[in-house]
Structures are given as C-alpha cells and as structure tokens.
Design goal:
Shape of chain A: globular
Structural class of chain A: alpha+beta
Largest sheet of chain A: 5 strands, mixed
Strand content of chain A: 15-25%
Order of helices and strands of chain A: HEEHEHEE
Helix content of chain A: 25-40%
Oligomer: homotrimer
Number of helices of chain A: 3
Number of strands of chain A: 5
C-alpha cells in the first residue's frame, strides 16, 4: 500500500508527462484501461522533465549492462508516471501480470535479463507479491528514437 | 457504427482471405476468440487478392518511412478482413486494447512510430474513441517472408 | 484430456525445473496465474535435466530450419513443465490463446513460421481444438544466453 510513499522513501520521484520529440505524432494511449485491466504502451526511459533519458543507443555497444539496468529502472518510473496520471492512485494496481522487456542491442548481446531486471527489481520492491509478473526480456534490432530499452506491460486494477 | 460503410466512404475495401505462400504451413488461427476478446495473430500487408503486398524488405533501406506507413495501413485492412471473417460484423468490436507493431528494419532505424501510425490512424479513423489502444512500435531483425511490417493486436468484442 | 498420458504415448517427457545459469538472476514468475488465465514468461529450449538446450545461436546461421523447429518443440515441453509445476495438472488448460514466437536470426532470415511450427504442432497434437491459438513468429536481433528460440504465451485455465 501507499506506493508513492515507498517511492519517496526510496528517494525516487515520478517524471513529468512524457515530452514527445518535435515532429513526432503518437496517436495512441499510454495506458488503456478496460474491464479491470490496464494495457500499458511501450515506455522508454525519461528524465525528470519528461524528455527521453539517455544514454541512447545499444546496450553492449553504447551502454554497459549496468547502464542498461538503470535505463530499465527509469522505464519503470516512466510507466508508473503514466499509470498515476491515468488511475489517480498507484495503489489501485492489484497485480502485475505481464512484462515484455525489449533491449536495443547488437546481434551478439545475450544479457537481456540482467538489463530488464532494473525494471523488475523496482516493481517488486514497490509491490512485493502483487508485483510478481510473467516476463520476456529480448533483443531488438532497433527502438524508437534510438532508446536503449522499451517495455510494455499489463496490470490488473481495482 | 457501420464500420464497413465508413471503409467504403474512405474508398477502402477489405482484401480476400490471406493466401499462404506455396509450401508454407501456418497451423494457427488468424483470430482466436475467447471470453469477450479476440486475440489477433501477427498480420502483414496484403494485396486485394490476398497475396502478400510489397514492397518487401526493411524500412529505411528498401522502403521509405512513407512506404512503411502505407504498409502498416494495409496491415490494418488485412486484420479487419480476418476479423470480418471471424466475427461476421466489424461493429462487434467494442474496444481496441493492445497493438504490437513490428517493423522490419536496419539497426540504425529509429522511426518505428511514424511507420506504425499507418495502422493506428486507420483504426482511429474508423473506430474513434473505441479505437484508442495501447501500443508498442519496435524494430525487428527480420520478419516472415521478408514483410516490411507485422502487427498483432487484441480487441474486446460483444 | 489426460495430456500427460498423451505426452508419454508420443514418447515425450517434461524436463526438470529450469536451471538458471550461474550468476543470473531471474526475478519473475515463469507462470503468473490471475483470474482464470495463466501468463507464461518467455521460455527457451531445455534439456531433460533443466539446463538450456543447444544448439545455441541464430537460426539460418548456426542452426538449420529443422534444428530451429526442434528447438521450438523443446520450448513447448519447457513451458508445459512450468505449467505442470504451477497448475498441478495440464488438463486444467482449457484454451491456448496467444503465442508470441521469437526466433534468434540474421537480418536476411525469413522462415520464422517454419521454426515456430515446432511449438504449434506440439500444442495442437496434445490439445486439439483447445490448442488453437493466435500467433506471431518474428525475428529477433538477439536472445538471452544466445538461445535460438524464445516463446511467450497466454492460456485460459479452469
């Protein structure tokens, strides 16, 4: 309970609304609520001001695994920001169900789980057993705006 | 309401059933209906006769972003064709929930959202607020038959 | 009914619990059950002892399509092993809904469906009409531990 208090206790805050880069149209919903579930669009790492957080590029080439882990943690905060704006209260999330973690990487990179753990560790620290989720962590040829990590997810809400 | 009338008003028609290339087996359902939802398999762009629509290849290399956008729009028509055959009536779709847009591209391509907008713009033009959806638009190393775009989705039905 | 009997009749057995490679943390649930559905994490091919099954690498480069097909079949057995441990009885699965098949491949590989058929053919042989599923079969830049195939899925349970 009281997820935002826990965030504050961890020294973390939610970023400002996502700033879409100039000239880009994103004609979809960051969170789509329907029938007790919230479908969450692919999110990337954000700075506190809402802009895309670097370093950009491919994990294993432009970012270390540790930097990838931190990017995935920022994706978690970005997603929680969108959920807060849509749901009003992060404690309405009763269960995390599915996490699809996508890592921008070269063809010889094989440590996607260690990167996406930055997201999973945050969600589990905040939501404990409600945070348990099925997950894939896989390697993409490329991601929008050359982001290092993008994650989509599904949660149950009440 | 009356999605097919709107399609006709837009000068668009649904393609014939998907023609599977010779020698290829696809042992799955293009649309799987269960408990008020329709799970939609990955679809590619189709010609009116049901064959795979070109240009084939990678967006940013073999196709421009504009050609990728058009391919994504054709994926939307292909998917609507499958949904019409399965559901009987496209007005049975009460909500678009999740869209996973996959773009065949080179490792340095970063405009996946501009490509998948071809799909989202079509769905929103037809379904308005019912068409709102969560979305990811990401870059794949390769796609079946060297298609430029493949999209899978989930809708609620009544 | 009696899926395990059918497996035995086919000369197949379920592998031991997944052995995570040394030093790797996987802080998620292989199967997440919620409200009549089981969300299944990305699974790879396993040996009988629970270790990751080779050959590792990219289909079309390090593995033939036939070897990729066999790897996808092993993914099916791995997933059924996780489902057996979570659900107690594989006959509790009332419907396969969504299969997302990811093939580790080079940018010029285009036979992902022929690879993922190794999974679909197994599920259909075991579950018949309950095994019908929506599916995507796509090409990834890279996969964890350099596995050749990873598949995530969703099933309905009772």
């Amino acid at each position: 309970m009281h997820i935002e208090e826990q965030l504050a206790n961890m020294g973390l805050g939610l970023p400002s609304p996502i700033k879409v880069p100039a000239g880009v149209k994103l004609p979809f919903s960051f969170v789509r609520v329907y029938d007790g579930q919230a479908y969450i669009s692919g999110h990337g790492p954000q700075n506190a001001d809402g802009s895309i957080a670097g370093p950009l590029g491919k994990v294993g080439v432009d970012l270390s695994v540790e930097q990838g882990y931190e990017a995935a943690r920022l994706v978690g905060l970005s997603m929680l920001g969108s959920l807060k704006r849509e749901l009003g209260d992060l404690d309405r999330i009763s269960a995390w169900l599915r996490v699809h973690g996508m890592v921008n990487c070269a063809p010889d990179f094989a440590q996607q789980p260690a990167v996406i753990n930055g997201f999973s560790d945050l969600i589990l620290a905040l939501y404990a057993e409600r945070g348990a989720h099925a997950r894939s962590a896989v390697g993409m040829a490329a991601l929008p705006f050359n982001m290092a990590v993008e994650i989509e997810a599904l949660v149950a809400i009440n």
